[in-house]
Amino acid sequence: HGEETVTAKLVVLRDDQLPPGFPNIDMGPQLKVVERTRTATMLCAASGNPDPEITWFKDFLPVDPNASNGRIKQLRSGALQIENSEETDQGKYECVATNNAGVRYSSPANLYVRVRRVPPRFSIMPASHEIMPGGNVNITCVAVGS
Q1: I need a labelling partner for 111 at 20 to 30 A (CA). Which of 24, 29, 41, 137 fits?
Q2: Which tens digit of pLDDT belongs to each residue from 35-44?
Q3: Which residues, including other chains, have CB under 8 Å from residue 108's CB and lie 6 or more apart?
């Protein structure tokens, strides 16, 4: 049968106790809505000393760009680029900056993938107006679709 034991040490630091060079997320991902089949880019920029390595998590699991046949790429900037987006790409994304001083997670950001079911069309077209300089005008334009 056998038995194996492993130990790990978790150190939680207050913000004012962080070692020099500890990674910082300078710009984390923001909520994004993308149309299915379009490209979505989730931004992430981090600093630290040494320069941190950026990885991505989706719904708390690591994102492996190699498992996507090139559809999902991590750009040199650290951003995650998702081409030809699918409903399964929808979720909560976090970028993680890691160097030998520590690990820092961004705030999570949701990516929503919209499926367009009704093509857009104008239901009320804007009308032409002639007005005097300095006068007021209301221009109405309404479109429908999803």
Answers
A1: 24
A2: 999 999 999 9
A3: 29, 92, 93, 94
